[in-house]
Amino acid sequence: MEQKKIDRINELAHLAKERELTAEEVAERQTLRAEYIAAFRANLTAQLENTVIVDKDGNRIKPKRTPKS
């Protein structure tokens, strides 16, 4: 996610503390938050897919993915 969008999320958060957000601002905030969460999940998934566990014998084991509940 671009830093510009993250800055806008923070700007909207500060505005929400000072005053009531307009309907357009609320919609923009929801859209940006959803995009941020999707990017966060994608990055975390990529990191976990490249994670290995080394057992006591030095074997590299890739953890199996569990189904979503």
Describe what you observe in this structure.
The mean pLDDT is 93. This protein has 69 residues and is mostly helical. Helix 1 crosses helix 2. It is built from 2 helices and 2 strands. It has helices spanning 3-18, 23-49; strands spanning 53-54, 60-61. 62% of the residues lie in helices and 6% in strands. It is elongated. Strand 1 (53-54) and strand 2 form a beta hairpin. It has a two-stranded antiparallel ribbon.
Task: Label this structure with key terms.
single chain; 69 residues; mainly alpha; two-stranded antiparallel sheet; 62% helix; elongated
Provide a quick synopsis of the model.
The protein is mainly alpha-helical and 69 residues long. Helix content is 62%, strand content 6%.
Computed Rg: 19 Å
Spatial shape: elongated
Query: What percentage of residues falls in helices of 4 or more residues?
Result: 55-70%
**Residue share in β-strands:** 5-15%
Secondary structure: number of strands: 2
**Structural class label:** mainly alpha
Order of helices and strands: HHEE
Number of helices: 2
Distance between the termini: 27 Å
- Low-pLDDT residue intervals, each spanning 5 or more residues: none
Strand order of the largest sheet: 1-2
Question: In oligomeric terms, what are we looking at?
Answer: single chain
Average pLDDT reading = 93
* Largest sheet entry: 2 strands, antiparallel
